[in-house]
Amino acid sequence: MDTSTPLLMSDRELSDLRSAALLVHCRSAGPPPRRDGLVFVWGHGWGHDHTAFNGLIDGLPAASHLALDFPGFGRSPVPGSAWGTATYADVAAEIVKPLHSEGARIVWVGHSFGSRVGLQLAARHPELVDRLCLIAGAGLQRRRSPTEAMRVALRRLAFRSMRLLLTALGRDTEPLRMKFGSADYRNAGPLRPILVKVVNEDLSEVARQVRCPTLLVYGQNDTETPPEIGERLAALIPRAELSVLPHQDHYSLLGDGRHLVLKRLLDFVQRP
To answer: What pLDDT score was predicted for residue 15?
Structure first.
């Protein structure tokens, strides 16, 4: 079920998705959705929850909003298996379908991990997404300088060598994984298998399938999802536009720089 392209689901798979969607915690804000009106659906980054978007949502008081806690984050329960972003997108689809069926137009706004889910949602369920806004969007593998690539390769070699040694000695390798893993890996807990799966996904082919208008917003100083990822996504998505905000980083886009993001988002959704 967890692939990057649309597929037919069995009744059991569809039932499982609907059951998972019912357990997702959502925050509604603004006026009730109306026919032909926009509903902003917000998908947060890894390790966060719906509150990450409070500043942006408060800046759009006249709009209808639905902010999600992805399964495993905030108040939503942890999935029972190692989901990829395709399954997260299919669950999100079950949540937004009622809004779509009532005539609302969906604007998916994702930050980082939420952008991965948004790409999958727009590709797998194109009828549900009117517009897509990806803030510090992830989904493509990082391009590193030769020096950075060498540093990463040496670190991986050291990890694998020490893991082999500890395994041969019958020692526990988990402390080694914690030492060499990223902060997200160390803090992932039961979501660690999902994190490993997600960060190894390459959504290039998924991006090529996105047909709705797409806004890509990146911070000039973002070292986690640098603007070069946005440049490559813009080249892959047929109807994409890229905006790089000076002096902003991965998180300030949702904080001190949110007024800049709001300006670009409003211009984007008000365009015919």
So the answer is: 80
